[in-house]
Structure formats: C-alpha cells, structure tokens
Write a structure and sequence with these properties.
By secondary structure, this protein is α+β, with helices and mostly antiparallel strands. β29 (about 450-455) and β30 form a beta hairpin. The protein binds 2-acetamido-2-deoxy-beta-D-glucopyranose (4 copies). One 2-acetamido-2-deoxy-beta-D-glucopyranose binds near residues 187 and 210. InterPro entries: Ig-like_dom (IPR007110), Ig-like_dom_sf (IPR036179), Ig-like_fold (IPR013783), Ig_sub (IPR003599), Immunoglobulin_dom (IPR013151), PSI (IPR016201), Semap_dom (IPR001627), Semap_dom_sf (IPR036352).
Amino acid sequence: MRIARCMRTVVLTMMLLYLLLLHMTHTAHSIYPRIRLSHKELWQLNRTWVFQGHGASLQPQTMLLDEGHERLYVGAKNTLFSLSLDHVNSHHRETQWASTESQIEECLMKGRGNLECANYIKVLQQYNQTHLLVCGTGAFNPICGLVRVGHTGKDRLFALQEDSIMSGKGRCPFDPNSPCTSTLSRGELYIGLFTDYWENDGALCRLNNRSYTRTERDDRQQLSEPKFVGSAVIPDNDDRDDDKVYFFFTEREMDVEGVNKAIYTRIGRVCANDQGGQRMLVNRWSSFLKTRLICSVAGQNGIDTHFDDLEDVFVLKNRDGKNPEIFGLFSTTSAVFKGYAVCVYNMDDIRAAFNGPFAFRERPEHHWTPYEDRVPYPRPGSCASKVNDGGLSSSKEFPDEVLRFVRSHPVMYRPVLPQHHRPVLLQTEPGRRKLTQIAVDRVQAQDGHYHVLYIGTDDAVVLKVITIYNKDTDTMEEVLLEELQVFKVAVPIREIIISSKRQQLYVGSEMGVAQVRLHHCDLYGSECADCCLARDPYCAWDGLTCSRYYPAGVYTKSRRFRRQDVRHGNAVQLCNGFQIEGDQWHKAEEKLVYGVESNSTLLECVPRSLHAKVVWFVQRERDKHEVRGDERVIMTSHGLLFLRVRSSDAGVYVCQTVEHGYVHTLLRITLHVLAGKRVDSVIHKANDGEDEKSIALCHSSVGSPPGPSISPRSLVPSSVPGPQPRLWYKEFLQLIGYGDAQTFEEYCERVWCSDKKRKKAKRKYVPSVGEKRVKGRAEENSHRAPRHTLDT
Ligand SMILES: *[C@@H]1O[C@H](CO)[C@@H](O)[C@H](O)[C@H]1NC(C)=O
Ligand SMILES: *[C@@H]1O[C@H](CO)[C@@H](O)[C@H](O)[C@H]1NC(C)=O
Ligand SMILES: *[C@@H]1O[C@H](CO)[C@@H](O)[C@H](O)[C@H]1NC(C)=O
Ligand SMILES: CC(=O)N[C@H]1CO[C@H](CO)[C@@H](O)[C@@H]1O
C-alpha cells in the first residue's frame, strides 16, 4: 500500500505540473487570492447557506434587503420569495404571481419564446412600512402590484393584494433580459428602463400616483442607446428640495468621424422635486444633466486604457447620507481584450462637474467645447427651492429661457475623475474570469477605515478585496483576502447585497441565493502571526485566537489588547515575542515519507496562504542547507517533487513559508528511500493477491478524481469540470511522455480501488504505513485550503 501511495502522489503531482505549465504565461495585472475556499469548504465551515427554491433553477431577477422585518425579498420567475436573513434556506415564504394562460398565449402569438413568456419580477421596492411595490414583465405585458409584508400576530403576511394590480407599463420592461434600475424615495419610483415592447424608448422616469415625469422621447442628446445600471437618491444639503436623483448608465455615441459608435459611462441627475415645465417640457425633466464617468489607467506610451463599460455600481452611504462614495465596476469595450477596473468617486467631484461649464458643440460631428456664453438664471439644472437663488417654489416657475437651455445643453463639459485619478483595482489578464457585481463594506480597523470590496464573477466566485492607497509613493495596493466559491456550479453572479448589520452577504445567481458570512477569522490560524499576516480588517489576534475585531468602545468588555496590522501585515514586528525560533521548530508538524529508488516522490507542503513563499531546507547530520530545485528535484506549489529519488536524498526536509518577511516552519518531513528491488518484490506479491472481480467493480465505482481541488496555485477556476474519471491521469502521463502508460494505469487503478474498498470497510482514519503523523495538527490540517484529499 505504501507504494500505492507513492504512485498516486506521482500522478497527482504530474497533473499539477501540467496545470502549472498551462498557466505559466501570467504576466498582465491580476489579483491573486491569499485564501481560496471551495463551495464545499464554505459549507463545511458553516459559512454559507444556499436557497434554491424548488430545485428548478430559481432565476432571481432582483433582490431587496428589509432589515426591519429581517427578510430578504427575491423577485424571480413567476414567484416572489421572502427569505429569512438568518438562514436563507429555512422558513421561507413565497407568493406565486404567474402570467395567465391567455397572457402567455398572447405572448407566444407575438412570436416570443416559451421561456420569455412568463412573469419575471424585475422591480422590487419598499413602498412603505407595510407594502412592497412589485413589478414583473407579465409575459411581455408588464404589471405591478403591492405585496403586504410584516407581522400581524402570529401570521406572517406575505401576499399580493389583488386589488392593487395595475399596468406596469413605464415601470417595468417588457423583456426579461432588458436592463433596468429603480429606486424608491418618498413614495415615488425612479426608474431607468425601456418603456416599450420594441425597446426603442429608453427613458429615465419618475412615477407617483399623480404624475409621470421622464426624459424626452427620441432625444439622442439626452439618452443614446442607454444601458441602465444603477440609481440613487442623494441629498445635497439639509434642504430636501435640493435632493438629487442620480442615474448610472452607459450610452453609445457616434465618434467624431461618424464611423464607430463608442460606449461611454454616464452619470445623470435630476431634482427629486422636478415638476417639469408649465408651457414647455410638460411632464419632462426640467433639470436633467449628465456627464461622463472616467475610469482609466495611464499607459507607458502616453495612451490611456479606458474602462468605459459600466457593469455595476455600488453607492456606499456615509453617516449623513450626503457624501456617499460611489464604486463603479467597469470593463473595457474592446472586443479583443477584456479588462476590468474598479474606480471610486467622491460626491465633491461629482457636484463640481455638474457645477462646471456646460458642453457645447455646433454639430454632432464637432468636438465638445465648454459653453462660454451667458448661462440663464436660475442656473439650469438647479432645483426649485425657496432657499436657492431663484427662490422659486416649483420648476413650473422656471423661465422658458432656462428650460430651453437645459433641453439643449444636457451634457456637462467636465467629466468626473475617480479618487487618486486611477482605479483602486485592476484585472487586465487576458482570459481571466469576468467580473459582474460589486458590493462594499466600510470596516473600522485598528489602523483606520478600510473598504472591503466584494466582487462577483461569472464563475460563481466572490472575491473579497481590500485596496490600500500609499500616499508617499502614490500607489495602490490591492490585497485579495479571499476567493469564495459561492455556488457549486460556475454560474455568473447576478446580485450581491451586503448586510453590515448582520455581517452577511446575500448573493444571487440563476442557481439560487447564497448567504455567506463576511469573515471567518479563526480560519487564518490560531497564532498571532497567522492572524496578522491575513490583513483582514475584520480580524485581530486577541492573545489566544484570531477573532472578530471590534473597535475600542464598541464592546468595552472585550477591550483587551488586540493585534492587527492591515496596512503592512507586519507580523515580524507585531508578533515579536510570540515566536521563539526554537519553539517553532518543535511545534512544526512531523511526517514520515517513503520513496522508492529511481521513482518519483512528492514531499507535500501546502501553506494555507497562497501568498506565502515556500522555502525548503534539508538536514543531514549537522549540515542544514536550502534546497534549490534542479531538473531532478522540482519545487512545485504542492511541495518538493523528486522525479527520480536517490538513496542519497534521504534526510530531514523542512518546509518553511515566508510571507511579508515572516518565517513560519510548517513541516518536518523525514524521507526514507527504499531500494527498488525490494519494492518490486512487494508489488508482485500484491498483484498476485488481487482479484479480477474487484477490479471490474472498481471501474464503476471510481469516482471523479480529486483533480479540480488539487490546484490551489494554478489559476484554473476550481469549478472547471475535471477530466473524465480514469482517463485523466492517463492523458497526462502521455502528455509528459511517460513510456509505460498502460501498465501504470492498471496499476494505479488497482491501487486506487483497493484503497477505496479499504476505506469503505473501515471508515476511520488509520495512519497508513507509508505516511505517519508522529505529532500532528490533524484538525487544522483538514481545514487547509484545497489540496488533494486522498491521504488520511
Ligand atoms: C457546523 O455546524 C454543525 C451543526 O451545527 C456542527 O456540527 C459542525 O461542527 C460545524 N462545523 C464547523 C466547522 O464549525
Ligand atoms: C402603505 O400603502 C398602502 C397602499 O397605499 C396603504 O394601504 C397602507 O396603509 C400604507 N401603509 C402605511 C404604514 O402607511
Ligand atoms: C397619492 O395621492 C394622494 C392624494 O392626492 C396623496 O394624499 C398621497 O400622499 C399620494 N401618495 C403618494 C405616495 O404620493
Ligand atoms: C514501485 C514502482 O513503481 N517501481 C518503478 C520505479 O521505476 C522503475 C523504472 O522507472 C520501474 O520499472 C518500477 O516499476
């Protein structure tokens, strides 16, 4: 059996090498996680729960957090769900709201597909304390209604009020795939959407029970082929008449040559109290202005790379609500190269752009210039307010001149530049995963505030990132703390909602809704250095464990000494005195490994942190020196690989990690090398004893190899379907030109299977002959990041 173990190790290792080779060409900017957790691991850590509805794909379209009632509402296909914020997968409620037979028939008659002809709930807003406003596509015939929520006595109310159902035209798109954004403030719904069946009429609208105010129809200057991404009501000051509603969207605009249409990201705004004009601009915005949001990086050749396609936006509210920070997730518009960036905008810069010069151009084929003539009074785009300059009580009192100006000059000359004039996060490596969603938490740490970014990808992953600006060098450091595979299947993340109050993330994809805890401090390890190196602003070392950090004063009782260094992760300085060289040496886990002469052997050592650099030392008698790889001894991300082990290789190998200058001894492995002949005779014995039937059985019982989960450092998304069972190692033996693949395969399979049987019989951890833990931290080990799980 001990040989079996060697062989498997060989196979696994070779697969690794292969994966590594595939991804060696990694040069462009990409962020690299410190910790990677698979869906299974999240599950085992009790860090996630997933709500999947009735098994069929849930297809959530929109989600709404209701902290007051402690519910998460999910608008899906034909159904509205109400989930518990504690455990999304328990005690849910639902309200069916499917289209009628005749509606579906009508939809099909219009030539629409079966899938589209359903009621996709796309608008979900808290109408008031007791009601939600809900709108769906209604099989290409939008409808809206109110849903009663909350508690009365024991009965949880969650029902659509039949008498509230009304047409949803202008409040919800017809097409389930049509992008729209909405926000509700003081009983008024603000929405950016295509209002018509053919999607010709993109509009920014406001609806209440009296009026419908919107952008001009067919005015390409106001909106040109928009894609609606986000919206928010943001007050300017304490005068509520000055409240503005901001919309985030992209537009397509003909370039100056009139050849290509380029995509730009826009921020547009209107006054919340805009009543439109009296004689002109009736039921049209009298305050609509827009400008460009820029997110770019300077190139070496002086040409900037622009990220012009807004994918998602997150408005991080501050205490008084007037100065939120705006996070935009952008992609490049190039068909050849897809890069992503996150830029952050301040309200000061946004307001300055809207208070700056208006843009002007003689003809569409001309360049924009600043408008330098007289601007009418009150300034176009300002809100009617008793306090403001004009002292007007309604936009209906604006002079015609003002309305005419705002109608013909909706574009501001100055764009809005991001903080530090650059992205806080970049991903420019070709072929990497797509980034789809962003949510941000503001976290108080010992050395200041941090923004923790949660970024959803197209392969079911949420990246947890902090970005640190260094004033002295004017540089930005991104630290990818964790990579969390939230869903089992690699589906795109469609929605991320954060609850800071509950320290939870609610993540939607077509697979369902997952709830994920924001942090899991004790996962980093129990020592001061483990915690400090993690640089997770949520976590600090409290003298015993790595645990949630609360700023002093929040819980006075727990205000004992805490150690945390998010900015530098300087464990050497911070945890000095908690690490004694000699002590470390003895604390390290010890292992015994047998190699067979002339065969390959892997000394496995995988640090939990993927940011740690591994260094190997070998000790023979008094001599201790660093192992430097050569063509026979290769340093892989899984450990030290001997392609052909020699008897002189025997010795004690020490695996150390270095991270931020901090040295940690993980393992001491004693390698014994067995003479080839002795082993051969053992194999023959084993072969004779094997029974044909069990091999046959085995063919059906050998499951997927642990392929996908063994690649912590390879850049392959961990959910990529692995090669077919049984074939995977064969393929790769051929790849690396292993001569006797046939025998090898048979051999491995047999070993594998008898191993399986043995496991089934015992179902207990039995130290194997080949590898024995003399003194181990088996528990911690089992929590380790992705590694192959065949051993133990
Ligand atoms: C997860 O929860 C289960 C049941 O509540 C418990 O038995 C298990 O120990 C927990 N696992 C971890 C890693 O906390
Ligand atoms: C919320 O609005 C609904 C519909 O207009 C109304 O019936 C209900 O009384 C309102 N609830 C509150 C608490 O104002
Ligand atoms: C709807 O209209 C009525 C009467 O005009 C008014 O009292 C009420 O406040 C309005 N509701 C909203 C949400 O605007
Ligand atoms: C046990 C085992 O697999 N031994 C192999 C070691 O390598 C030699 C030559 O590479 C093989 O012939 C043995 O079968």
